[in-house]
Amino acid sequence: MAIVAPLSKFKKNGLKIRVLICIAFAAWCVYDGYLNKEWAKKHTDPDGTPQTYLVFNRQAPFYLFPLATLFAANLFIIRNKKVVADENELIINGKERISYDSIEKIDKTNFDSKGFFIITCKNESGRETDRKISDKTYDNLGAIIDEVITKIS
Questions:
Q1: Residue 104, Cα to own-chain centre: how many angstroms?
Q2: What is the pLDDT of residue 124?
Q3: What is the mean pLDDT of residues 19-30?
Q4: In this structure, what are the phi and psi dihedrals at residue 126, rounded to the nearest 5 degrees?
Q5: Is 67 left (phi over 0), alpha (psi -120 to 50) or beta?
Q6: Count of CB atoms situated within 10 Å of the CB of 98
Q7: DSSP β-bridge partners for residue 128
Q8: Cβ neighbours for 110, distance < 8 A, ≥ 6 positions apart
Q9: DSSP secondary structure of 40-90
Q10: Exposed/middle/buried for 22, CB within 10 Å: 0-12, 13-18, 19+?
Q11: Does the structure show a pLDDT above 90 at 152?
Q12: Order of strands, edge to edge, in the sheet holding 116-122?
């Protein structure tokens, strides 16, 4: 039976919060820069040139809305990422496959305190490579690491 560690709620919620903050701040800037005529008049010099606050509120939405779109696109792209420990190998994001036979060691000294562990394995060319897997990226890593340790022992 395969054990799955899906993308963490920490990562998903962080991206959702970034999208909402960008949209809210952009909406506020649009309101102050274009719709609130009193505020715009208050932040315009007598000769008609806008002060820095007004210039910022008029320019910021052109950067904040695309930034919110980038965060949303990132969330859409990574939404299905996961780590799967099946019978023969560890599958990371459906692309990277690490067979249990190729795993040299697992360093889980920082797993309880900092939430990550490092897998040292041999790749196809015979070189040792390290793969760091963090609980800020994936949920249910405790079960994954227990399964991997059971399989390599």
A1: 28
A2: 81
A3: 97
A4: 95, 0
A5: alpha
A6: 20
A7: 122
A8: 116, 117
A9: HHHTB-TTSPBPHHHHHHHHTHHHHHHHHHHHHHHHHHHTT-EEEE-SSEE
A10: buried
A11: no
A12: 103-107, 116-122, 128-134
Distinct helix (H) and strand (E) counts, the chain: 6, 7
pLDDT in tens, 37-76: 999 999 999 998 999 999 999 999 999 999 999 999 999 9
Full-model pTM: 0.81
- What single-letter amino acid sits at 4? V
Residue indicated by tokens 């040792």: 128
Q: What Å distances lie between residue 49 and 29, 32, 33, 103, 106, CA to CA?
A: 18, 16, 13, 66, 63
Q: Is 25 exposed, middle or buried (0-12, 13-18, 19+ CB in 10 A)?
A: middle
Q: Which two tokens stand for residue 89?
A: 């190998």
What is the rounded CA–CA span in Å between residue 25 and residue 62? 12
Tokens of 106: 């697992």
**How far is the C-alpha of 37 from the C-alpha of 71, rounded, in Å?**
31
Residue 18 identity (one-letter amino acid): R
At position 9, the amino acid (one-letter code) is: K
Token pair in block for residue 73: 């696109």
